[in-house]
User: Which sequence fits this backbone?
């Protein structure tokens, strides 16, 4: 099982302005590469806040692409996903999972969503170590985590991230912007998650930085 975290941020690590505007921080070449990375993974993972705010499809959209679509996974402990959203409406065509902490919502199930019930941690969020194991049991062996900031921080805090795919745009959003990585509760530098940079590429005006866990 491998977990890759994707970040698309400003130079100062922000994924949106203070008002929540985020489309598009990075350029078209970066977004195209993200679709290639999606195609290389068995599932794309997002938090429910991202799903509610953006109503994404989380599909591979490349010219001429006819390959397999990755499964979509939403971390949604209270099953707040709207039955009218794109993810639920297309669940019959593309495998779609909701990770909850209670019994499956019959409405989501009736639309073809597979609801997996995970143990809850203290803040009622699903325990991510259990989630990764459960998804592995479903045959989803390499996960592509796309957001948002709290989800990124949670995977990093749990030590579950094996690789980073970081797309960095040449803009600054400042401290009011929304961070790409949520709280890590790092008290000392020695406790910080460490990664090793393995590649840097230029994509249009952006930088694409690749890291593995160090």
Assistant:
């Amino acid at each position: 099982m491998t977990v890759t975290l994707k970040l698309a941020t400003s130079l100062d690590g922000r994924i949106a302005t203070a008002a929540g505007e985020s489309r598009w921080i990075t350029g078209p070449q970066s977004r195209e590469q993200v679709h290639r990375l999606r195609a290389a993974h068995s599932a794309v993972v997002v938090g429910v806040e991202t799903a509610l705010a953006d109503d994404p499809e989380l599909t591979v959209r490349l010219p001429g692409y006819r390959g397999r679509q990755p499964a979509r996974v939403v971390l949604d402990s209270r099953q707040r996903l709207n039955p009218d959203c794109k993810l639920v409406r297309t669940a019959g065509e593309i495998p779609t999972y909701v990770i909850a902490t209670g019994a499956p919502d019959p409405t989501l199930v009736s639309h073809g969503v597979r609801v997996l019930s995970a143990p809850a941690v203290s803040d009622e969020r699903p325990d991510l170590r259990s989630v990764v194991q459960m998804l592995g049991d479903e045959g989803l062996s390499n996960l592509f985590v796309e957001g948002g900031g709290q989800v990124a921080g949670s995977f990093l805090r749990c030590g579950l991230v094996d690789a980073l795919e970081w797309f960095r745009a040449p803009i600054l959003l400042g401290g009011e912007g929304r961070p790409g990585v949520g709280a890590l509760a790092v008290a000392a530098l020695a406790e910080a998650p460490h990664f090793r940079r393995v590649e840097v590429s230029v994509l249009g005006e952006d930088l694409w930085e690749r890291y593995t866990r160090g």
The chain has six helices and eleven strands.
